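Students often ask why inverse folding is considered easier than folding. One informal answer: many sequences map to the same fold, so there is more than one right answer. In these notes we will look at a single instance of the problem. The structure comes first.
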């Protein structure tokens, strides 16, 4: 599993139970929502560094999450 995904899971949920066989165990809907938003924000940051502003706008419109 990608190290950054593991780190985001830990940040998203204090009840994070760890990784077993490449599976995440996030507790509660709020943690899952926060985790997903964190991943989308990371994608927006990558697009921003690359100057892909149209792609950023599409991601923001699609997911409703901003930097």
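Output (designed amino acids):
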């Amino acid at each position: 599993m990608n190290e950054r995904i593991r780190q985001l899971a830990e940040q998203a949920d204090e009840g994070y139970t760890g990784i077993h066989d490449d599976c995440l165990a996030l507790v509660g809907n709020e943690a899952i929502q926060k985790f997903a938003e964190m991943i989308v924000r990371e994608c927006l940051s990558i697009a921003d560094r690359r100057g892909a502003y149209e792609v950023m706008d599409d991601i923001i419109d699609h997911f409703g999450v901003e930097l």
